[in-house]
Design a protein that fits this description.
Elements: H1 13-76, H2 80-93, H3 100-111, H4 130-142, H5 146-159, H6 165-185, H7 189-202, H8 207-225, H9 230-243, H10 250-267, H11 271-284, H12 288-303
Helix pairs in contact: 1-2, 1-3, 2-3, 4-5, 4-6, 5-6, 6-7, 6-8, 7-8, 8-9, 9-10, 10-11, 11-12
């Protein structure tokens, strides 16, 4: 019997079985390949995390050593507040850092020395009228001549330490407060903080003076970390920017610190962290070159693999959560 012309040949049972077997083998091979490649990618990702963690550990160690050395220099210069801030920072990252706890105690002991608004009593001066000296101090305060006012008050204390004590202390408070604010608004912030601390020894400062003192402390704290810890610098300047964005060059410093920190994050492979800081900088000042870096970091961040949530440790359901704050940043003046 002849085969009809134009009819398609029918597959034999053996050829059908072979085709199905090849299809199954192909699927299995593809699955195995995906698993192998995925495992390799995950292993590479984990290796990258480990490498970055080691780099951060080394960087932190160098930073702590630098902060310790600067803290020792601050102690020698009797800059106790700055020294205490450095040693507290060190201990917050490494509670067992050699020598840090002892140095912190030394700095705190220096801070506990109560300042006095009037210098040690000079040799008694005779033949001068305390009323005239007090009047001269009042005139100097009214004119805003703080140095002259404090000089007259010191003179009054030398001539007659018991003369019109309450009035003399009020004048000393006003002069110290005025000079402290003027110094902070100028280029003598540390001296200004000291003056306000001295004024506070007579009576509590008003809110305006406390604000300036707190802003100056934050500004100096940020400066102390400048070039050593950009993350900490950015954190402090962000607090200051929220409280007083127009205080001195706070916005410009925050802009530059955010860029420096973003560049470091970008170079270390943290594209997402870099993008966040580039964006923060752009909100302060617009710069086309920064916009390009921001776009590149955002692109790399989108391509960065994320770890499998199932691989992360399961939280202990019995653990108590830390109480949430009220969301408001507080500054101790």
């Amino acid at each position: 019997m002849s085969v009809t012309e134009g009819a398609s040949p029918q597959p034999t049972p053996q050829s059908t079985h072979s085709s199905r077997l090849l299809s199954v083998l192909g699927v299995v091979f593809a699955v195995v390949l995906i698993v192998v490649l995925g495992g390799a990618a995950w292993a590479g990702y984990q290796s990258g995390l480990a490498t970055r963690a080691e780099q951060l550990r080394i960087t932190q160690s160098l930073d702590l050593q630098a902060q310790f050395n600067l803290g020792v220099e601050d102690l020698a210069a009797r800059q106790f507040a700055r020294a205490a801030a450095r040693f507290e920072y060190i201990l917050s990252l490494d509670p067992d850092y050699p020598g840090a706890r002892e140095r912190l105690a030394e700095a705190q002991a220096g801070l506990q020395v109560t300042p006095t608004a009037i210098p040690p009593t000079p040799q008694p001066v005779t033949g001068e009228d305390p009323a005239a000296i007090l009047a001269a101090a009042q005139e100097a305060v009214a004119a805003g001549n703080w140095d002259a006012a404090l000089s007259q008050i010191t003179r009054l204390h030398a001539v007659d330490p018991d003369y019109q004590v309450a009035q003399a202390e009020n004048l000393a408070f006003t002069a110290l407060r005025g000079r402290g604010l003027a110094r902070i608004q100028g280029d003598e912030m540390e001296a200004g903080i000291f003056d306000l601390d001295q004024a506070n020894a007579f009576r509590p400062l008003d809110q305006d003076a406390r604000n300036y003192r707190a802003w100056a402390r934050l500004y100096l704290a940020a400066k102390s970390y400048w070039g050593l810890d950009w993350a900490r610098t950015v954190e402090i300047l962000q607090q200051l920017y929220v409280l007083a964005p127009n205080f001195k060059d706070t916005s410009r410093l925050l802009y530059q610190a955010s860029l420096n920190w973003a560049d470091i994050l970008n170079a270390s492979g943290d594209a997402c962290g870099a993008a966040e800081n580039y964006a923060a900088a752009q909100q302060l000042f617009v710069d086309p070159s920064v916009a390009e870096r921001l776009t590149a970091a955002q692109t790399n961040c989108a391509l960065t693999p994320t770890p499998d949530p199932a691989a992360e440790a399961t939280p202990d359901p019995g653990a108590e959560a830390a109480p949430a704050g009220d969301g408001q940043a507080t500054v101790t003046p």
